[in-house]
Amino acid sequence: MNAVLSDAHALIMRCAEVETPAGIGRALYDVLRGYGAKSMVLADRVGDTVRHFALEGPDGWYDYYFRHDLRRGNPVFRNLRRRSTGFVWSEIDDRCAGDQRWFDALDEFEMPDGMSVPSHGPGGQMGWISFTAERIEMSALERQAISLAGLALHDRLRVLAGGIEAPVSLSERERDCLGFVAQGKSDWEISVILSISQSTVHTHVENAKRKLGARTRAQAVARFICQGLA
Fold it and tell me: Residue 120 sits in which domain range?
């Protein structure tokens, strides 16, 4: 198992035995505090209904957040809708004047940066994990592992809600290709490593996505780990 898969697997396994959404939230927050997290949200939205499975943070933060309706003009939500993988807030590249109220509030509570992981499901369902920190100091591998773990944990929440999916079987080549996708390799790079054509790599990855019921490559890798296929 490569380093990204190994790290993501370790994060997921710390939450895998928990049987309630709130328990998953607590277990995940324990993990993220090791990365300097000062607050965390684990939530999803179906239609206009938002469900908060976990809200962790300093005294007064969520009272302030909801009282001042900081969801409006929040650049994180804008980016959650249009992104498929985890992102760090200080790297948001579409800031506008209306966003400043959000960043001023974060500064006031001494947690000016953060990271979010979106999880897009069927019928417009969207889940997300967001956590704040004084500074995000993680390697690219750690960011990727947290992103994969976030996707997998939202799948776990869907399982607890009754949406259980049957295990799948991937071919050896499909497993190989997803393993390299987890490392951030392009189809061309994987084709060179495996001595197969780029189009064949693409076919293997798309077949794996279809079998795993995943919309994105990152989601496919997360389910790949969760189902013990890595």
Answer: 3-160
